Amino acid sequence: MNLVELLSDHAHTKAEKVALKDCRAGKVRSITYWNLQQQVEIASENLRRAGVKRDSRVLLAVTLSIETYVILLAIFRIGAIAVVADASLGFQVLEQSVSMVKPDAVVYDLRTSLLCLLSCEVRNIRLKLFSDTIVSQQSEKLNVKTSQSSVIENVNEDHPALITFTSGSTGKPKAIVRTHGFLQHQHNVIAKSLTSDPGDVELTTLPVFVLSALAHGITAVLPDCNMRKPASIDATKIAAQIERCEINRIIASPAFLQTLSDFLSSKRQSLNLIRRIYTGGGPVFPALMKQMKTVFPNAELIAVYGSTEAEPIAHIDFGSIAQEDLTQTFAGGGLLAGKPIQDIELRIADFETLNSSCRGGIAKSIPALPPFAIGEILVSGKHVVKTYLDERGNAETKIEVDSQPGKEMWHRTGDAGYTDHEGRLWLMGRCTSKIEDERGEVYPFQVEAAASEINSIRRATCLKSNGKRILIVERKRQHLPITFARTQTGDAAFLGTINDAFRWLQFDEIRIVDALPVDRRHNAKIQYSQIANRLNKHFPWTWGRIVHQQAIFIRN
To answer: What 3-state class would DSSP assign to 292?
Structure first.
């Protein structure tokens, strides 16, 4: 078998259908399934001639474009292994990632050529290939049917195809190996869970879903933006691209969709062509879904929960969220993620029991907690990564259960949650962020979810410092005169509202800041460690302008 066999099938059955679209210098480019197949064949032969062989690890350091996927599929075709390191995680993590995998070759372009000079690890890669020598950049060649054919390397299901990285909660990268069989299973699950129609034109910001779109035979459009900072995209360009390319389906991160929705709301515009939106990769709060419903009035809105090691795990249609669910979120009940998909087994397990009974990554059984009992979310299934490269990181997240009739591998997500009487999953945040004191247990994520229902707040969280529960609030940006007026008056009404809304938290202080730090990758996950460090150093003014007197409000 080989993944690209699906592409070969589409090249004959859907020859003239557009496979990919992108935008360069304001110009929309497209390539059909037939022409994509031809370009992949040419690129695979060029890789072979350059010295890339079966099992070679090839670092893909190119700007996202049609050519990116031509090269990626060509790597798969010859049985080599594509290595994709996320530069948004930082230069140090990039160096660690490349060092861990030790690629045999790197493919780069003009925009990433500086990386080959700055990165010691990339400089040490023996074979350096310029992308233009692998893929033809002449537009006329993208639209000419060639007679060239090349042999597809036959590999088994367990043959590695793609290596990516995740930092998880440790900050140190772990290499995830996806085999040809795994990617096939993942595509089958995505196709079943995230349904699509043959005529869909999909704007996709997540690479694994681009691969799934190609495997499904629909049109995938690459966004006209730098996806390293999804919260800072040029929404004007994206809105224009959606209309120009007649996109009717979007798969994107919450930060991307928040920025786009804010833009459309400010312009009082709506995009009526969009029929379905899937969003995940970060917390998807009801407030965003409500806003999207106004700017994408004809769209079905689905929030997807998953992790890099298991995508997807659960999802929920915004239309199925009842007022009682929103009330539960506002009262600190966490975020509703929906029912687990059919192709995954999910279990809520006691955190302490896991640490004590699952030593060495092996357990006789994993007892499941009853409904509404909070524990760690564990998953198992064919599209759940079984191991990391060289088993680095397995001890922390993988559990092998020796059950009948055979062994099962479970993945610890590191997320806390619970199920309700309907079997729906509720998220409570990272297990390691739990606050325990004489008032009980609380997770900062409970505050984040509840704060999303307050119009004047952009983000909020809670941390414990010097024995106190501190509520930290980032409110929505206002015009300067309004901000100044609130500063002068002390904004008692605003703080009084917060005091009432978060009375269930039993906090001791409020600190109001201009901005809470979020992760580089998704621009959505609050970085608790950064906030804690600043609180402990007693320098809160380094991470936000003080709005209220000394940024402290004592709870009554």
So the answer is: helix
Q: Minimal CA–CA distance to 411: which of 423, 400, 427?
A: 400
Start-to-end C-alpha separation, the chain: 67
Cβ–Cβ < 8 Å for 241, 222: no
Inter-CA distances, 134 with 45, 49, 143, 350, 431, Å: 9, 10, 17, 51, 45
Q: Are 206 and 252 in contact (CB under 8 A)?
A: yes
pLDDT score for 489: 42
Query: What is the pTM for the complete model shown?
Result: 0.88
Going by pLDDT thresholds of 50, 70 and 90, the confidence category of residue 483 is very low
Q: How many CB atoms lie within 10 A of CB 492?
A: 11
Q: What is the predicted pLDDT for the residue at 491?
A: 58
Distance (Å, whole) CA 197 – CA 129: 38
CATH 3.40.50.980 domain residues, the chain: 5-16+29-179
The pLDDT score that the predictor gives to residue 240 is 94
Q: How far apart are CA 1 and CA 385, in angstroms?
A: 20
DSSP state of 404: S
pLDDT given at position 433: 92
Query: What DSSP designation does 333 have?
Result: I
Look over the chain and give the mean of its residue pLDDT values, rounded to a whole number.
Answer: 86
Indicate the burial class of 390 (C-beta count within 10 angstroms; 0-12, 13-18, 19 or more): exposed
Q: Which fold has domain 5-16+29-179?
A: Rossmann fold (3.40.50)
**Which of the listed CATH numbers 3.20.20.70, 3.40.50.10210, 1.10.10.10, 3.30.300.30 matches domain 437-554?**
3.30.300.30
Note whether 413 and 320 are within 8 A (CB).
no
d(CA 53, CA 80): 6
Q: Do residues 108 and 183 touch, judged by C-beta distance below 8 A?
A: no
Portions of the chain given CATH number 3.30.300.30: 437-554
CB 126 within 8 A of CB 105: yes
What mean pLDDT comes out for the span 306-328?
A: 95
DSSP code of 341? P
**What distance in Å separates the CA atoms of residue 249 and residue 112, rounded to the nearest whole number?**
30
In the chain, which residues fall in CATH 2.30.38.10? 341-430
3 state DSSP class of 104? coil
- Non-local CB neighbours of 481 within 8 Å, separated by 6+ positions: none
pLDDT at 276 over 80: yes
Structure tokens belonging to residue 538: 């007693």
**To which H or E segment does residue 214 belong?**
helix 207-216
pLDDT tier, 406 (very low <50, low <70, confident <90, very high otherwise): low
Residues recorded for the chain: 556
Q: What is the mean pLDDT of residues 363-380?
A: 93
Could you tell me which of 139, 112, 131, 126 has the C-alpha nearest to residue 43?
Answer: 131
Contacts of 342 (CB under 8 A, 6+ apart): 192, 193
H/E segment holding residue 446: helix 444-451
pLDDT given for residue 484 in this prediction: 37
d(CA 108, CA 14): 31
The domain defined by 341-430 carries CATH number 2.30.38.10: yes
